[in-house]
Amino acid sequence: MASPLDPIKRSYKSTEQRQSAIIEAVVHLCAEQDPSTLTTARIASEVGLSQGALFKHFPNKNSLWESVAEWVSGQLTERVFSVAGQHERADEALEAMFLAHIGFIVRHPGIPRLMLGELQKPGNGAAKRIVRETLADYRQKVIKLLNLGIEQQRIAAAIDTEAAAVLYLGAIQGLVVQGMIGGDIRSLEQAAPRIFRLFSASFKEIPDAPQA
Q1: What is the per-residue pLDDT for 210?
Q2: How far is 29 from 33, CA to CA, in rounded Å?
Q3: Is 186 helix (H, G, I), strand (E, B) or coil?
Q4: How far from each other are the two terminal CA atoms of the chain, in whole angstroms?
Q5: Distance CA 6, CA 171 (A)
Q6: What's the pTM?
Q7: In the Cβ-directed half-sphere of 82, how many Cα atoms lie within 13 Å?
Q8: Where do runs of H (alpha helix) occur along the chain?
Q9: How confident is the model at residue 8 (pLDDT cuts 50, 70, 90)?
Q10: How far apart, in whole angstroms, are the C-alpha atoms of residue 81 and residue 40?
Q11: DSSP string across 79-134
């Protein structure tokens, strides 16, 4: 005999799935247009809902953008940060993260526009805070791995880890911008290993010159 709670559970699951579909639609649409011009009517149309139905899942646009920012943060943690744990050597972990991040962007090209759009907004809304905190956590993770690499003697002891972390993130951002300019985001996966090799050359130990 079915439990009287079963319909409620099915309804909740359906709502959760619909919310996920709406969030993914936003990420997809951000690849096609400026996020600041994206309307709830356009988002609702993308998932086959009326605006009224959309607002049943998200009471306003700010709450939707907050959920999208949380999704992006969670995806970065799951698909990018987690790969570092699969490598004992810090330099290999940094490379794996770099390549995973580029792969993530290739699959979701709207994410850079979305994150940049949030950072450019005035004030300090919830979505903007989530994006800033995610980037700050990312930077700290890179610094932690750089320090681990120094301990493992895989990275030069004299390296400026703060500057290296900025360069690491800047290399990813630069690659993404070049892909957007060239209109070929998919090509980034071929370019990424070469760019990382240039970055990693800057933190390798330089052997002492032979004595005369």
Answers
A1: 46
A2: 6
A3: helix
A4: 90
A5: 50
A6: 0.83
A7: 8
A8: 6-30, 40-46, 51-57, 61-79, 90-107, 110-120, 126-151, 161-182, 188-201
A9: very low
A10: 31
A11: HTGGGGGG-SSHHHHHHHHHHHHHHHHHH-THHHHHHHHHHHSSS--HHHHHHHHH
What pLDDT score was predicted for residue 205?
57
At which residue do the structure tokens 């760019």 appear?
A: 195
Angle (deg, nearest 10), helices 61-79 and 110-120? 130
Token duo for residue 201: 């050359």
Instruction: Read off the pLDDT of each residue in 96-115 and give the average, rounded to a whole number.
Output: 93
Evaluated on CA atoms 101, 103, 108, 109, the torsion sign reads positive
pLDDT of 168 above 70:
yes
Quickly tell me which residue has 């940049």 as its tokens: 116
Matching residue, tokens 């004992």: 88
* Contact of 138 with 76, CB cutoff 8 Å: yes
Amino acid symbol at 193: P
Look at residue 17 and tell me whether its pLDDT is greater than 90: no
CA distance 100 to 95: 8
CA-to-CA dists, residue 52 to 37, 55, 59, 170, angstroms: 19, 5, 10, 41
Q: Is the CB of residue 128 less than 8 Å from the CB of residue 119?
A: yes
The residue assigned the tokens 């972990």 is 93
Amino acid in the structure at residue 2: A
